[in-house]
C-alpha cells in the first residue's frame, strides 16, 4: 500500500511524529491517524500542516479531488467508525460538502494531554446509532470544555452538516438556552420563535451541537430532548457539573489526570510520563521554555500533582507560579492551595481564573441543605464508606425524623453535581465509598470556619470513627474480624485525623463533647488489636503515650487500667521493657483497686512476659502461676490457654523442649476446642519453632504442615503480623533445606513488615537470618551490613537481649567463611557468655552445628591458641569484640 503523502514528507525531513504533533498543536496519536488515512485534519490543522511542509492540501493528500469524492470519503469514515462500535452506521448528509458544513468551534491552541482513552471512549459512544445525547460530567476545572473542543476537532468528518460549539458561560436563564443555540447557528430571524428556527434549520441535517457549561441552566434539559426529537440526525455533546436527568442522556464522568503513587515513587523518567506531570511541564514551558522534569524536582512535581488531585485547572494555575516558585518552593505552600492558585489566563471566564472561583461556582449551585452537607463532609479524609455516611447522617440529624432520608438524597445530589465521586470497590468485602477532592475539601473547611461549624463537624466525625473502631474490636476472631481489619485500614486516614484532633490543643465547647478525654482512652483501647495486627506499633504508641499523659486521672477506671496494659504491649514490642513494666504496674494497681480479677490475671500474664524478656525467668513463671490462679476460679479457659502458651516459651528458652512441646500440644488442643483461630495461630507458630529447633534433623514435614496451617489462618484473619511471623519461620526452614531463593523472599517479606511496624526485637533477629542467607548466596558485603544493622538494633534496645547474641553469632559464621578464624572464636565466646547472662540458650539444632564448627576451629588453631582466644573473648564486651575485626591475631588471618 502506497504510504500517505504526510508520512512521506515527514520521513524525507527525518522528523518524528512527536515533532509534527508539537508543531501543529495536537498529539502523536492524531498524527498517526492522519498518516494512516483514518481521519482528515480539520481546516485549522490543514493550514498548519501546509505551512509546516510548504505544500498545498492536495499535495499532502488532505483533500479529495471533487466534492463528490469528499462526500464519499466522509461517508466511508463514518461507516468505518460506526461499524467499529457494532452500531448501525447513520447515513451522512450528502446535501452539503465538508467545505460547506457549519464549523463554529474554538481553535485548539495546545495539545490535549492525557485524554486519549477518554477521546476514544466518547467517540465510540457518540457514534453509536442509539446515542443522541452524551453529557460529560465532572468537577469544576477537570477539563470538560477542553475535552469537548478536542472531540469536535477530531469528529468533524463524521458530521456532514457541521459542528457548532455553544458556550453557555454567560447564560443563567434556562429560557435563553435555545435562543443562544439559534444565535450560534446564525439564525437571526427574530420574527420566528427560537425553537422553530433551530428545528427548521436542524431537522434534516447531520450535525453535532456542543453545549458547554450547562450546569447553571440544567432546567432547560427537557428542551434539548424536545429539539433532538424534532431533529433525528442531530447529536449533542454537553459539558456540565451536574447530571441532566433526561431519558436520552448518556453520562460520561470525566476523571482527574493520572498522578504518581506517592508511596512508591518511580524514577524521574517514569514520573514525567504521568499525564498530570506532563501537563504541568507543558504549561511551565510557556513561562520557562527550558523547564523539564529532573532528578532534583521530580518528587516535588509528583507531590504537587497528587496534592492537586490531578485537576487540570489546578495544575495549570500552579504551573503559572513556576517563575517565582520552583516546584520545591511551591509544594509546601499548597497546604493552602486556594490562596496560591489565583493567577489564571485573563482570557478565561472569571470563574476559571482562580481555583476558589471555580469551586464557589459549583457551591453556589447547591441549595442550603446540600451546602451544609457538603461542608460537613469536607471534614472526612480519604473518603468514607456509605455505611459510615449513614451513621454520620444519623448523628448530624440528632433525632430529626427526616434527617437521614434528606441527607441521603442530598448525598446523591452531591454526586450528580460532581462534588462527591463514588470510588471503585477494591474487593467483594468493600463497602461503596465516596471521595471528595482535596481542593474541594479545603473550600468546604473554609466555609465551616466562616460559619462556626468546625467544632460540630469535628465532634461528629470523631464520634463516628470511635463507634466504628469499637464495633470492629468487638468482633470475634474469624473472617468477620479480617473484614473489620480491612475496613479499618481503608478508614485509617480518618482515624488518624480523629487522633490528631483528640490530642490537639483545640478548645472544644463542653456542651458539644463533655468527655473528650474519655474518647481518647476508648479509641486507644479499641484500636490496640488493629495496631498490633497490622504492625502500626510506632504510631499506636505515640497516640497511647500522649493520650495517657494528657487524659489519665488519679482514680482508677476500667478504661484507664486497660489503656495502661495495652499501651505496655506496644512499647514492649518497640523494645522499651522498663517503660512497658512501669505501665503494666499502673494497670495492675488499677485492676486491684477495681477488684477485677479476670482483667488482673491478664495484666499479670503480660507482666510475666516482660519479666521473661528481661531474663527474669523465675519471676516470670511466678507471675504466670498467679495469673492461672485467678483464671481458674472463673473458668476462664481462654486465659488459661494463653498462660500455658507463655509457660511453654519459658520451657523452650531454658532448653526444656520436651515439656515445652507437651504444653504447646495442649494449648493447640484447648484453642481448637475454644474455636479461637488467633489462639491456634499463635500456638502453631511456637510449636513449629520448638519442633524445628529442638534437634539437628527436625521433622520437616510436620513443621511445614504447622506453618502452612498457621499462614492460612493468618490470611483468613487478616492478621498481617501473624502472616509475617509464619513467613519468617518458613524462610528459616527453607534455608536449612538449602532453598536459598525461597528462603530469602520469605524472610525479606517478614522483615519488611516488622521494620515498617517498628518491632525492633524481631527485626534484629530476622536481619541475622537474612544475613546468613545472603552469605550462603555469596554476597558477603550484604551480609556484613545486615549483621551490623542487627547489632545496632540490639545495642539501641538497651537491656541485654537475644538480638545482640544472634548478631555476634551471625558475624562469627561470616568470619569463618572469610578465614578470619581468630575473630570467629572470640565472637562466639562473647555470644556464649551473653546467652548465659540473659538465660536464653541457643536452639539445640543450631547448637549442634555451632559445636561442630568450633571443634573444627579447635583442631585448626590448636588447643592452646583456641583456649587463649576463647578465654580472652569471654571478658570482652560485644562492642569491643565487634570492633576488633582486623586487630586480633593478624598472623592467623590466612591459616
Features of the shown structure:
62% helix, 43 helices, six-stranded parallel beta sheet, 9 strands, disordered C terminus, 895 residues, three-stranded antiparallel beta sheet, mainly alpha
Question: How would you sum up this structure, described in words?
Answer:
This protein has 895 residues and is mainly α. The chain contains 43 helices and nine strands. The strands form two sheets. It has a six-stranded parallel β-sheet, with helices on both faces. Strand 4 (207-212), helix 10 (221-230) and strand 5 form a beta-alpha-beta unit. Helix 2 (17-24) packs across helix 3 (28-35). The longest helix is centred in the middle third of the chain and has 20 residues, at 454-473. The protein is elongated.
Number of helices: 43
Order of strands, widest sheet: 1-3-4-5-2-6
What's the average pLDDT?
84
Q: What is the straight-line distance between the termini?
A: 77 Å
* Uncertain stretches: 64-99, 399-404, 888-895
* Biggest beta-sheet profile: 6 strands, parallel
Helix content class? 55-70%
Shape: elongated
* Extended strand count: 9
Strand content: under 5%
Topology of helices and strands:
Layout: H1 5-12, H2 17-24, H3 28-35, H4 43-53, H5 67-84, E1 102-104, H6 116-126, E2 133-137, H7 144-155, E3 162-167, H8 177-184, H9 194-202, E4 207-212, H10 221-230, E5 234-240, E6 249-253, H11 268-271, H12 275-284, H13 298-307, H14 312-319, H15 327-333, H16 337-340, H17 355-364, H18 368-377, E7 384-385, H19 386-397, H20 403-416, E8 421-423, E9 433-435, H21 438-450, H22 454-473, H23 479-490, H24 492-503, H25 516-534, H26 537-551, H27 558-573, H28 577-594, H29 597-613, H30 617-631, H31 637-653, H32 657-674, H33 677-693, H34 700-717, H35 720-736, H36 740-757, H37 760-776, H38 780-796, H39 802-817, H40 821-838, H41 844-861, H42 863-874, H43 878-882
Parallel strand pairs: 1-3, 2-5, 2-6, 3-4, 4-5
Antiparallel strand pairs: 7-9, 8-9
Helix pairs in contact: 2-3, 8-9, 12-14, 13-15, 18-20, 18-21, 19-20, 19-22, 22-23, 22-24, 22-25, 25-26, 25-27, 26-27, 27-28, 27-29, 28-29, 29-30, 29-31, 30-31, 31-32, 31-33, 32-33, 33-34, 33-35, 34-35, 35-36, 36-37, 37-38, 37-39, 38-39, 39-40, 40-42, 41-42
Amino acid at each position: 500500500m502506497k504510504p500517505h503523502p504526510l508520512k512521506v514528507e515527514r520521513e524525507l525531513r527525518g522528523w518524528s511524529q512527536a515533532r509534527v504533533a508539537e508543531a501543529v498543536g495536537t498529539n502523536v496519536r492524531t498524527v498517526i491517524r492522519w498518516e494512516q488515512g483514518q481521519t482528515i485534519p480539520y481546516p485549522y490543522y490543514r493550514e498548519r500542516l501546509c505551512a509546516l511542509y510548504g505544500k498545498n492540501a492536495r499535495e499532502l493528500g488532505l483533500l479529495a479531488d471533487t466534492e463528490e469524492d469528499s462526500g464519499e470519503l466522509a461517508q466511508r469514515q463514518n461507516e468505518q467508525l460506526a461499524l467499529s462500535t457494532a452500531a448501525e452506521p447513520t447515513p451522512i448528509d450528502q446535501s452539503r460538502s465538508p467545505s460547506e458544513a457549519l464549523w463554529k468551534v474554538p481553535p485548539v491552541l495546545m495539545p490535549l494531554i492525557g485524554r486519549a482513552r477518554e477521546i476514544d471512549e466518547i467517540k465510540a459512544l457518540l457514534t453509536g446509532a442509539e446515542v443522541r445525547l452524551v453529557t460529560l460530567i465532572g468537577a469544576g476545572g477537570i477539563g470538560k470544555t477542553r475535552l469537548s473542543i478536542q472531540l469536535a476537532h477530531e469528529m468533524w468528518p463524521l458530521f456532514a452538516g457541521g459542528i457548532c460549539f455553544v458556550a453557555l458561560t454567560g447564560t443563567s436563564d434556562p429560557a435563553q438556552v435555545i435562543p443562544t443555540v439559534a444565535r450560534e447557528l446564525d439564525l437571526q430571524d427574530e420574527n420566528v420563535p427560537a425553537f422553530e428556527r433551530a428545528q427548521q434549520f436542524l431537522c434534516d441535517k447531520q450535525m453535532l451541537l456542543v453545549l458547554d457549561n450547562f450546569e447553571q441552566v440544567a432546567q432547560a434539559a427537557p428542551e434539548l430532548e424536545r429539539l433532538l426529537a424534532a431533529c433525528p440526525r442531530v447529536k449533542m455533546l454537553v459539558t456540565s457539573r451536574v447530571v441532566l436527568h433526561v431519558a436520552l442522556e448518556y453520562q460520561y464522568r470525566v476523571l482527574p489526570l493520572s498522578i504518581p503513587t506517592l508511596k512508591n515513587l518511580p524514577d524521574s523518567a517514569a514520573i514525567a510520563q504521568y499525564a498530570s506531570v506532563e501537563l504541568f511541564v507543558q504549561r511551565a514551558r510557556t513561562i520557562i521554555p527550558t523547564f523539564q522534569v529532573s532528578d532534583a524536582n521530580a518528587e516535588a512535581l509528583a507531590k504537587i500533582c497528587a496534592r492537586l488531585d490531578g485537576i487540570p485547572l489546578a495544575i495549570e494555575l500552579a504551573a503559572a507560579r513556576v517563575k517565582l516558585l520552583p516546584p520545591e518552593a511551591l509544594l509546601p505552600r499548597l497546604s493552602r492551595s486556594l490562596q496560591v492558585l489565583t493567577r489564571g489566563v485573563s482570557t478565561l471566564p472569571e470563574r476559571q481564573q482562580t481555583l476558589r472561583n471555580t469551586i464557589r461556582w459549583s457551591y453556589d449551585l447547591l441549595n442550603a441543605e446540600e451546602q451544609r452537607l457538603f461542608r460537613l463532609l469536607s471534614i472526612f479524609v480519604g473518603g468514607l464508606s456509605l455505611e459510615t455516611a449513614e451513621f454520620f447522617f444519623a448523628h448530624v440529624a440528632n433525632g430529626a425524623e427526616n434527617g437521614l432520608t434528606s441527607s441521603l438524597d442530598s448525598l446523591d445530589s452531591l454526586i450528580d453535581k460532581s462534588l462527591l465521586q463514588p470510588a471503585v470497590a477494591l474487593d467483594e468485602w468493600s463497602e461503596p465509598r465516596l471521595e471528595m477532592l482535596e481542593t474541594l475539601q479545603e473550600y468546604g473547611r473554609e466555609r465551616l470556619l466562616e460559619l462556626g461549624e468546625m467544632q460540630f463537624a469535628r465532634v461528629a466525625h470523631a464520634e463516628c470513627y470511635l463507634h466504628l473502631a469499637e464495633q470492629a474490636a468487638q468482633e470475634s476472631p474469624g473472617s468477620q474480624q479480617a473484614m473489620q481489619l480491612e475496613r479499618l485500614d481503608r478508614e485509617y486516614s480518618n482515624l488518624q485525623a480523629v487522633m490528631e484532633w483528640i490530642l490537639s490543643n483545640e478548645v472544644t465547647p463542653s456542651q458539644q463533647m463533655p468527655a473528650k478525654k474519655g474518647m481518647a482512652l476508648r479509641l486507644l483501647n479499641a484500636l490496640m488489636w488493629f495496631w498490633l495486627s497490622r504492625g502500626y506499633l510506632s504510631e499506636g504508641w505515640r497516640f497511647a503515650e500522649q493520650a495517657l499523659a494528657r487524659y489519665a486521672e488519679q482514680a482508677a477506671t476500667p478504661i484507664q487500667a486497660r489503656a495502661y496494659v495495652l499501651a505496655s504491649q506496644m512499647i514492649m514490642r518497640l523494645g522499651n521493657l522498663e517503660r512497658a513494666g512501669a505501665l503494666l504496674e499502673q494497670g495492675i494497681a488499677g485492676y486491684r483497686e477495681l477488684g477485677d480479677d479476670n482483667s488482673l490475671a491478664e495484666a499479670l500474664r503480660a507482666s510475666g512476659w516482660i519479666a521473661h524478656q528481661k531474663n527474669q525467668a523465675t519471676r516470670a513463671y511466678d507471675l504466670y502461676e498467679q495469673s492461672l490462679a485467678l483464671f481458674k476460679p472463673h473458668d476462664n479457659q481462654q486465659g488459661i490457654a494463653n498462660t500455658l502458651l507463655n509457660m511453654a516459651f519459658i520451657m523452650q528458652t531454658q532448653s526444656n523442649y520436651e515439656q515445652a512441646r507437651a504444653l504447646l500440644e495442649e494449648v493447640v488442643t484447648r484453642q481448637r476446642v475454644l474455636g479461637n483461630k488467633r489462639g491456634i495461630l499463635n500456638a502453631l507458630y511456637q510449636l513449629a519453632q520448638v519442633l524445628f529447633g529442638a534437634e539437628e534433623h527436625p521433622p520437616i514435614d510436620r513443621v511445614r504442615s504447622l506453618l502452612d496451617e498457621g499462614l492460612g489462618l493468618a490470611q483468613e484473619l487478616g492478621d498481617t503480623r501473624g502472616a509475617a511471623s509464619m513467613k519468617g519461620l518458613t524462610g528459616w526452614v527453607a534455608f536449612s533445606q538449602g532453598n536459598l531463593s525461597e528462603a530469602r523472599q520469605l524472610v525479606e517479606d517478614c522483615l519488611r513488615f516488622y521494620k515498617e511496624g517498628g518491632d525492633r526485637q524481631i527485626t534484629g533477629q530476622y536481619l541475622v537470618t537474612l544475613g546468613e542467607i545472603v552469605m550462603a548466596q555469596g554476597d558477603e558485603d550484604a551480609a556484613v551490613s545486615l549483621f551490623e544493622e542487627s547489632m545496632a538494633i540490639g545495642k539501641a534496645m538497651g537491656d541485654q537481649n537475644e538480638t545482640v547474641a544472634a548478631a555476634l553469632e551471625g558475624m562469627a559464621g561470616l568470619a569463618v567463611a572469610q578465614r578470619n578464624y581468630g575473630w570467629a572464636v572470640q565472637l562466639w565466646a562473647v555470644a556464649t557468655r551473653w546467652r548465659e547472662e540473659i538465660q536464653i540458650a541457643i536452639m539445640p539444632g543450631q547448637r549442634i552445628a555451632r559445636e561442630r564448627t568450633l571443634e573444627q576451629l579447635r583442631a585448626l588453631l590448636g588447643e592452646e591458641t583456641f583456649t587463649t582466644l576463647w578465654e580472652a573473648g569471654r571478658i570482652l564486651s560485644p562492642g569491643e569484640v565487634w570492633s576488633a575485626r582486623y586487630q586480633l591475631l593478624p598472623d592467623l588471618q590466612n591459616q
